[in-house]
């Protein structure tokens, strides 16, 4: 039976911990704000939680990831896998790896590629670092869809954050467009149009967006300049429209 420690028992950490326990692992958790949790053993300290653990999951805020790793490093079993599931930069992941390396622990940079809510242990993940393969073997064997992509800490985080540029950028663009539509009295129409576009999206749309932007950069830049001007008239800050115009003008300049 795999022994797994989960440091950080917020919504995501608790869900994953409970699912690991349900899958047959021996799970002990720790969170300074949680004294007890239904169906889960909670240790009195982080070092107590990780002693004897084959795999340790850190599910915390990125701002405390290094401090958490440092707090348990001396208690880690040699050859244990310390898996950092926090969303942070590749450089921050490497700092966590350095914090646990003196203990002989193998570090795994784990990037959760979908929201944990509603998925728990079934959240798809990428893993990189010296402990990635072992993490995939143990935690993947218990039900997490894990793809190990190499031995470099930070590679999994980089892939997730590249995707975040798309997903969060898309959300920002939609939000800015809907703000404008609100002022034009057309929010519902635009919302339905966006929903239909996303529903019907396919590889051809992606090609049109990527390749078409290169081929028609100058014309599209002028279009976004007009959109930016309209947003300013409506009192909507043209953050995305302005950035889009600048990007298109850089494409047009590169093609000259």
Written description of the protein model:
With 256 residues, the chain is α/β, with parallel strands linked by helices. It has two domains: 3-152, NAD(P)-binding Rossmann-like Domain (Rossmann fold), CATH 3.40.50.720; 160-254, N-(1-d-carboxylethyl)-l-norvaline Dehydrogenase, domain 2 (Orthogonal Bundle). 53% of the residues lie in helices and 13% in strands. It has an eight-stranded mixed sheet, sandwiched between helices. Helix 6 packs antiparallel against helix 7 (187-199) and helix 9 (217-234) runs antiparallel to helix 10. It is elongated and about 60 Å long. The termini are far apart.
Features:
256 residues, alpha/beta, Rossmann fold, N-(1-d-carboxylethyl)-l-norvaline Dehydrogenase, domain 2, 2 domains, 8 strands, elongated
Radius of gyration: 23 Å
Shape: elongated
Number of strands: 8
Cα-to-Cα separation, first versus last residue = 63 Å
| Helix segment tally | 10
Unreliable residue stretches: none
Short précis:
Helix content is 53%, strand content 13%.
Topology:
Elements: E1 3-7, H1 11-22, E2 26-30, E3 41-42, H2 46-50, E4 55-58, H3 65-72, E5 81-84, H4 90-100, E6 106-112, E7 125-128, H5 132-141, E8 146-148, H6 155-184, H7 187-199, H8 203-215, H9 217-234, H10 239-254
Parallel strand pairs: 1-2, 1-4, 2-3, 4-5, 5-6, 7-8
Antiparallel strand pairs: 6-7
Helix pairs in contact: 3-4, 6-7, 9-10
